[in-house]
Amino acid sequence: MDTEALQPEIVVAVPGPRSRELARRLQRHECPDTTFLAEDFPVFWERAEGVHVWDVDGNRFVDLTSAFGVCTLGHAHPAIVETLQAQSATLVHGMGDVHPSELKVRLAEQLAALAPGDLDVVLFGSSGSDAIEAALKTCAVASGRPGALAFEGAYHGLGYGALALTWRAHFRSAFRDQLNAHVTHLPFPGHLEEEGGLESSATRALDRVDRLLASSAGDAIGAVFVEPIQGRGGVVVPHPSFLPGLREICSRRQRLLVLDEIFTGLGRTGRWFACQHVDVQPDLLCVGKSLAGGMPLSACIGNEAVMHAWERSRGEARHTATFLAHPMACAAALTQLRVLREDDWPARIAERGEELAARLRAMLQVPGVADVRGSGFLWGIELRAGDGGPDAARAETLVRRALSNGWIVLPAGSAGNVIEWTPPFVADDATLAGAADAVRELLRSCAQSQQSADDA
């Protein structure tokens, strides 16, 4: 495939007539809170391959999101497609907690071998939120404490247990009275406006955690939940001392440390798991998103001492689901892990991430770009207005203009002012260079448009 073929191809103005028609039909029958519908958004996908997505109107886009971080090996990876085709001919569905498939055993063994340290007992789920809820229940059983500590800016999912840990008021406010009252949030270090730099902010954050867990107010807290890098929270990267500090505090205060690596895990940051950058081993590790290469599957992986706080099943599991360890998803996950391992993708992402970082940091020369931060193939471009406040309006404009030009990007951050950059691992240098150039010029264009509006 030549370089030109790697770029977007817009044959009908976005969104095209078929996308508009489908939007009208969806609006009639879907809950209005679910899909954002506007005159210029969204497009409806028809097929996808590698880094490319085709909509129902024949437009070709470059996906810089890996579809929420799921398709790290690209859309429709040939090995995963072959696996799913073969598996569909033998066993589509099993009885995961009654009569499991062999695939469940093999995947549990592989996850145990892959996870850091002595994390070798697995509790499966279908979504990232499922994995977090499994971790919450495990912590309650193991610690005897009903509460948890999470961080401002955190996103852990929208199920009721996970939602109590998630920070953003937009997600929580309507359900606040139904959420776990024993969850506390403290500031997460790594934001631009913090005084003294990243190391000082990490020290202050750790001191607050330690004081809380030592106080009577922290008696109900049995675990600390944290993302090594906040993803949806704005790709916020703490100082390297933060995770080791949390590990030390949790060990000393006899609390469990739970790492949410649903976004950061499985090679995204240049290591199998982001916690390995700072040699931290949690008590529980949550994985999901890219685990099964596009199929719904997640897992909470823990050490034996914590996981065996659960009683041995006597015939009725207390945390399970109809589609537990679904054979199709397990088969896809085994192939996903094999390809990641055989092609040494974490190491390749570590190396290529340096090149991507250089391209993205060039955007710091564009007015209004306040910060570019990340690791591997997980980056955020933070936009600030002239008064220093978050520029969510410009981020929204950029996302829509990028889509009309054939680039799929997403906003992130509690204020929606961070452009998230999570391309598939298979995106080659020509694609990434073209994408960076295009987004940089779109950012300049947005800045010029804003300046003209201000002058008027």
Structural write-up:
By secondary structure, this protein is α/β, with parallel strands linked by helices. Helix 9 runs parallel beside helix 10 (242-252). It has helices spanning 3-6, 17-29, 66-69, 78-88, 102-114, 128-143, 160-165, 169-172, 197-214, 242-252, 304-307, 327-342, 345-361, 392-404, 429-455, and strands at 45-49, 52-55, 60-63, 119-125, 147-151, 183-186, 221-226, 256-260, 284-287, 298-303, 369-375, 378-383, 407-408, 410-412, 418-421. Helix content is 39%, strand content 16%. The model has no long low-confidence stretch (mean pLDDT 95). A hairpin with a 4-residue loop joins strand 2 (52-55) and strand 3 (60-63). 49% of the residues are buried. The protein has a 7-stranded mixed sheet, with helices on both faces. It has a 4-stranded mixed sheet with strand order 1-2-3-13. A 4-stranded antiparallel sheet has the order 11-12-15-14, covered by helices on one side. The chain is built from 15 helices and 15 strands.
